[in-house]
From TrEMBL:
Localization (cell): Cytoplasm; Nucleus
Role noted for this protein: Dioxygenase that mediates demethylation of DNA and RNA containing 1-methyladenosine (m1A). Repairs alkylated DNA containing 1-methyladenosine (m1A) and 3-methylcytosine (m3C) by oxidative demethylation. Has a strong preference for single-stranded DNA. Able to process alkylated m3C within double-stranded regions via its interaction with ASCC3, which promotes DNA unwinding to generate single-stranded substrate needed for ALKBH3. Can repair exocyclic 3,N4-ethenocytosine adducs in single-stranded DNA. Also acts on RNA.
InterPro entries referenced in this protein's UniProt entry, alphabetically: AlkB-like, AlkB-like_sf, ALKBH3, Oxoglu/Fe-dep_dioxygenase_dom
Positions of the Fe2OG dioxygenase domain: 164-270
Species: Danio rerio
Pfam families: 2OG-FeII_Oxy_2
Similarity comment text for this entry: Belongs to the alkB family.
Catalytic activity, reaction form: an N(3)-methyl-2'-deoxycytidine in single-stranded DNA + 2-oxoglutarate + O2 = a 2'-deoxycytidine in single-stranded DNA + formaldehyde + succinate + CO2 + H(+); an N(1)-methyladenosine in mRNA + 2-oxoglutarate + O2 = an adenosine in mRNA + formaldehyde + succinate + CO2; a methylated nucleobase within DNA + 2-oxoglutarate + O2 = a nucleobase within DNA + formaldehyde + succinate + CO2; a 3,N(4)-etheno-2'-deoxycytidine in single-stranded DNA + 2-oxoglutarate + O2 + H2O = a 2'-deoxycytidine in single-stranded DNA + glyoxal + succinate + CO2
Oligomeric and partner information: Interacts with the ASCC complex composed of ASCC1, ASCC2 and ASCC3. Interacts directly with ASCC3, and is thereby recruited to the ASCC complex. Interacts with OTUD4; the interaction is direct. Interacts with USP7 and USP9X.
GO process terms (BP): cilium assembly; DNA alkylation repair; DNA repair
Annotated SUPFAM superfamilies: Clavaminate synthase-like
Cofactor(s) of this protein: Fe(2+)
Protein name: Alpha-ketoglutarate-dependent dioxygenase alkB homolog 3
């Protein structure tokens, strides 16, 4: 066959002759098996074992039964969850839910991103405590007038957890579209290793946790451990130890019908350390 007929037609002109790949000779193969590399003409191809072992995304764990769970041992120390479903009886939880839904001073808070642009939180909130609470560059003013139902619940939660709380952040998720994004409750005003007691009323929502990535993963959460905790009506969840330092949590939006849910997070707030010249001055 003529050289011209062997060539492909490309946009009305003849393509350049196709270079046939050169097969390695018997001598090439013999020298490759001796040296550990393949040589073909001027190029050589070498096989290297990948430096990084292949990493697997860990399967998400689910915690749904009552109990104490040590969810990690590092890097800051032990992180622990205590799950107490049925902390409130069904009838008392029903009654408290309707009262708090109707009577708390719910409002939508405006927060600010790093660059200063404002956004409305996708949920309603209110705050109780002798001290104000600042997060996402916006402050909830002190409010020492505890609703009587909240004052009763605070005592019950303190008894169960053997811990004193001076503040309460209330969240109202109006439906499945309301949410709270990934964060940890690690503001300086909460002190080191804060204990957070979270009481849920109303429709069940999934509380998710993800471990902070290793420093070498530079903020990439692909391979971190994950946990789901469905929080039903009347359930108390305690987060203890290094849970805020080593994990983040969220309540994601859900794309099927969800009724309203109230979440009460009891906290201990300390006076804010004064910042001076970029340092904390106590
Ligand atoms: O609604 C919840 O269960 C979580 C609320 C929460 O993460 C928070 O208030 O910081």
């Amino acid at each position: 066959m003529s050289d011209k007929r062997q060539r492909a037609r490309v946009q009305g002109s003849w393509a350049k002759p196709v270079q046939k790949p050169q097969r390695p000779s018997v001598q090439d193969v013999q020298s490759a098996s001796a040296s550990g590399s393949w040589k073909s003409g001027p190029q050589s191809f070498e096989f290297h074992q990948p430096a990084d072992p292949i990493r697997k995304v860990p399967a998400e764990k689910v915690i749904e039964n009552a109990g104490d769970y040590e969810i990690s041992q590092g890097p800051s120390g032990v992180s622990r969850l205590r799950l107490i479903p049925g902390f409130l009886l069904q009838e008392e939880a029903d009654w408290m839910f309707s009262k708090l839904l109707a009577e708390l001073p719910w409002s939508q808070k405006t927060n600010y991103r790093m660059m200063g642009d404002a956004y409305e939180e996708p949920r309603l909130t209110c705050w109780y405590g002798e001290l104000p609470y600042t997060y996402s560059r916006s402050t909830m003013e002190a409010n020492a007038q505890w609703h009587p139902v909240l004052a009763t619940l605070r005592l019950a939660v303190e008894q169960k957890s053997a811990h004193k709380f001076n503040s309460l952040l209330c969240n109202l998720y109006r439906d499945g579209k309301d949410s709270i994004g990934w964060h940890s409750d690690s503001e300086p005003s909460l002190g080191p290793q804060p204990i957070i007691a979270s009481l849920s009323l109303g429709d069940t929502r999934v509380f998710s946790l993800r471990k902070q990535p290793l420093p070498e993963d530079k903020g990439d959460f692909t391979y971190v451990e994950r946990i789901r905790v469905p929080l039903a009506h009347g359930t108390l969840l305690l987060m203890e130890g290094c849970t805020q330092a080593d994990w983040q949590h969220q309540v994601a939006k859900e794309y099927h019908d969800r009724g309203p849910r109230i979440n009460l997070t009891f906290r201990t707030i300390y006076p804010e350390p004064q910042r001076s010249g970029g340092r904390f001055v106590t």
